[in-house]
Amino acid sequence: MSQGARCAGRGRSPIVIRMRQYSADLTPPWKKPKPVPEVAAEPGLVVEEPGTGFCGAVIRCEAGTVTLEDRFGKHRVFPLEPRGFLLEGRVVTLVRPSSAPVRPSRTASGSVAVPGARARVARAGRIYVEGRHDAELVERVWGDDLRIEGVVVEYLEGIDDLPAIVEEFDPGADARLGVLVDHLVPGTKESRIAEAVTSEYALVVGHPYIDVWEAVKPASVGIPAWPRVPRGQDWKTGVCRALGWPDNTGAAWQRILGSVHSYRDLEPELLGRVEELIDFVTAPG
Fold it and tell me: What is the CB neighbour count within 10 angstroms for residue 140?
C-alpha cells in the first residue's frame, strides 16, 4: 500500500496509514566509515598515498587530481578521492584549494610568518658558518627570519684561522659576530680554536656532528641512521658508499637538502645553536 493511502470502514472514521521510509543505504551504522577531515591541497603540504606508500609534497592541484613530489624529485599524479591520503598518519580527504592563496602562518623555522614583510637593511653583524652546505641549510630553515632581521650568513671554508678572522672583523656592540662550528666537542681541534676567540662581542657555538649532513634527521632523508665512517676516510665519500649512493657528494647533498622542509627535519643540537646565534647577533647594542 502506498504511503498516505486511506482505508474506510463502515461507520468508522477514515484511518491514515503512513509507511516508514527507509534509506537506500542499508549499511548498519557501526559498519559505516567515520567522516574524515577535508584538507586543502595547498602547495608544500606533505601527504602519503596509502595504496602505493608514495609520500611527497603537493606541487600542483588540478580538477580531480593532485601531483606530489617526493624527496628524490619524483612526481606522481593521484586522483582526489574521498579518504584517499594520510596526513601525519591520519586519513584525510584532499580537496582543491580555493582560488585565494592561503599564506603560511609559520616560517620553516617555526616563527610566526610576517606576510609582505620587506627584508631589513643588512646589519653590520654577521653569522659565519664553516662551509657552503652549512650556509645552505641555515638559509633553507631560517632564511625568512634572517631577512626580516637583516642578518647575513657567510661561510669560511674551515675555521683553522678563526681567531685571525675574528680579529680582522673587529666585532663590537653594534657589529656582533656569531660563528657556528662543526664537531665542537671537548678535546678536539675545533674546541681549542673556539677557546682562542675571546671578544665579548663574538660568540662561537657548535654542534657535535662531524659534518652538518648529520644534523639532518635520518628519517627525513629516508635512511635508518647515518653510517659510521672509519678514521682516515673522507667522511662524505664514506657516507655515500655506505648508503649505496654514487660517489658524488654534491648530488648527495642536494638529496639531503631536498629532504629538509622545516625545523622538524633537523636535530635539536643544531636548532638550538642557530637560534642562539641569531639572538646574539640581533641583541640591542
Answer: 17
Q: How far is CA 182 from CA 12, 120, 200, 204, 230, in A?
A: 98, 28, 21, 11, 18
Whole-model pTM? Answer: 0.62
Say how far residue 43 (Cα) sits from the centre of its chain. 13
Distances (CA, A) of 214 to 17, 33, 184, 226: 77, 43, 13, 7
pLDDT score of 15: 58
Instruction: Provide the phi-psi class of 224: left if phi over 0, else alpha when psi is between -120 and 50, else beta.
Output: alpha
Q: Which of 110-124, 217-231, 236-250, 265-279 has the least mean pLDDT?
A: 110-124
Name residues whose C-beta falls within 8 Å of residue 109's C-beta, 6 or more positions apart in sequence: 141, 142, 144, 145, 262, 263, 275
Residues 141, 155: Cα–Cα separation, whole Å: 16
Cell of 141: 630553515
Q: Cα 85 to chain center, whole Å?
A: 19
pLDDT per residue over 145-155, tens digit each? 899 899 999 99
